[in-house]
Amino acid sequence: MNHQHDTSQNTSKETLHSVSYDVIIIGAGPGGAFAAYELKEKAPSLRVLILEKGRSIEKRACPKRTNGGKCVGCRPCSITTGFSGAGAFSDGKLSLSPDVGGTLSDILGYDEAAALIRESDDIYLKFGADRKIWGVDKEKEIREIRAKAITANLKLVECPIRHLGTEKGYEIYAALQRHLLDAGVDILFNTAVEDILIETSGAEDGTVREHVTGVAAADGARYYAPRVIAAVGREGADWLNGQCEKFGIESVPGTVDIGVRVEVRDEVMQFLNDNLYEAKLIYHTPTFDDKVRTFCTNPHGEVATEYYDGNLAVVNGHAYAGGEYATHNTNFALLVSKNFTKPFRTPIEYGRKIAELSNMLCGNRIIVQTFGDFRRGRRSTEERMCRNNLIPTLKDAVPGDLSLVFPHRIMVDLEEMIYALDKVTPGIASDETLLYGVEVKFYSNRLVVNREFETSVPGLYAIGDGAGITRGLQQASANGLCAARAILAKKEGASA
Ligand SMILES: Cc1cc2nc3c(=O)[nH]c(=O)nc-3n(C[C@H](O)[C@H](O)[C@H](O)COP(=O)(O)OP(=O)(O)OC[C@H]3O[C@@H](n4cnc5c(N)ncnc54)[C@H](O)[C@@H]3O)c2cc1C
């Protein structure tokens, strides 16, 4: 039986919303989908409803793919909404370590998070993921790299990767959608949740208690359940924040990761590139004890401009495995993690203001500076950049001075990290190394949850990227499993 409802032409919705459910899930990304999977796997009779503001997987298509890469601003965005959320068109790199892609280990402990990741990985395998694991076969070389990292006080994060690839990933999520529908999960597509329904009731001791009762969709329909999982992803993070403010659900400001994209000749990074799928190194800087990390390494790649919110120029990088676009350069991000405490609550604005400053200085383009000029405190010039082995791949970047953009603290953090990296892969601290600014990664505010991922409102669970708990496919999926199990355990406890 197929329980999929496309509400753009749905006739049976009225009958659906008069039904109450055991569990309602907001969002059909990896977090929501894996939660539904686990609920039905362990308790097939449970009535589970998913409301998803995007389309079913077979109806998702991004116009950018057929019109020469131009975003036409679909609402909702086909890349980030619909069944499997931001996962559908991703590169599908599943990180198999709790150190990468989220903070499950902070909540559950390292071993429990690792075990959950193995279990969610098994589900990807069940639905057809490639069995090959990358990044584990070069033990001798990895030991050598780790030894150097230790001397430089850097942590080498070993992260085995299962690579789905975009096409295969899409097929796997399509199979998961079919499985959920066959298992009897009701899925309403094109249905955004507008409000979480929360009621207050008085207890005998005179205290007032809140609890969740369901959700109200944007079209006014109401769906009831004693347990609601918010799995709304980055796409729904602002909405979820609004709900937190409206209902006093506890949350803390998220992190902002800010820094530069580094570009060097491939020769400088070759040993790391050849032996690790991606070199992930973390440093706590000696001066400020700030966390700085490498992220998203692109061998033979190109530095690129990306427009955040359509107009703010920020840096990113792409990799080309080979072929006509391959370059002689490797690029990667160096990001300083900034966490803020009370009373500041808008870290995204902070990151945006720094990026705006750099855009203002160079006509809405990206600033590039050699490391030699960066550490000497002077602006880079076309002439000085032409003296080098390295040819910049971002052609319209403006030679400039990053010290006019970054706070002193971030400048010091970046410089100290580059010297530390130089001990692992000599050549990084060369005068010719290029630093492009500003690279910034925003993360959702983090909802305060307990070990069951239940928020301060009983019955309301929050998981995945939208809750500020995860940042990647595998941890978001594992988070779904975990929340589902907590709900099942509570139900069992209640009926025992
Ligand atoms: C281009 C791209 C490439 C990526 N590549 C990788 C990668 O290779 N490896 C990796 O590990 N991670 C990758 N990621 C990140 C990864 O996709 C996310 O970490 C993961 O999808 C998060 O899962 P989630 O379930 O928490 O949220 P999402 O996948 O974002 O899903 C949330 C869902 O909730 C829905 N929703 C939101 N608000 C509402 C509402 N009010 N009502 C109803 N529905 C709502 C959205 O439409 C969406 O479908 C990539 C992300 C992007 C954008």
Structure explained in plain terms:
- This protein is of the alpha/beta class.
- It has helices at 13-17, 30-42, 104-108, 110-126, 139-151, 166-182, 237-247, 266-275, 347-361, 371-376, 382-385, 408-424, 473-495; strands spanning 4-6, 23-26, 48-51, 93-95, 154-157, 161-163, 186-189, 193-202, 208-217, 222-224, 227-230, 251-252, 256-265, 280-284, 291-298, 302-308, 312-318, 329-338, 367-370, 398-399, 434-442, 446-447, 460-462.
- Helix content is 31%, strand content 24%.
- The strands form six sheets. An eight-stranded mixed β-sheet has the order 5-14-15-18-13-21-19-20.
- Strand 9 (208-217) and strand 10 (222-224) form a beta hairpin.
- The chain is globular and about 75 Å long.
- The site of flavin-adenine dinucleotide has 42 residues, from helix 2, strand 4 and helix 13.
Task: Characterize the biggest β-sheet.
Answer: 8 strands, mixed
- Report the uncertain regions: none
Name the beta content range. Answer: 15-25%
What is the chains' assembly state? single chain
- The number of helical runs is 13
DSSP helix fraction: 25-40%
- Cα-to-Cα separation, first versus last residue: 32 Å
Cα gyration radius (Å): 24 Å
- Give the strand order of the largest sheet, numbering strands 1, 2, ... along the chain: 5-14-15-18-13-21-19-20
Average of the residue pLDDT scores: 91
Structural class: alpha/beta
Shape: globular
Q: Count the beta strands.
A: 23
Distinct small-molecule ligands in the complex: flavin-adenine dinucleotide
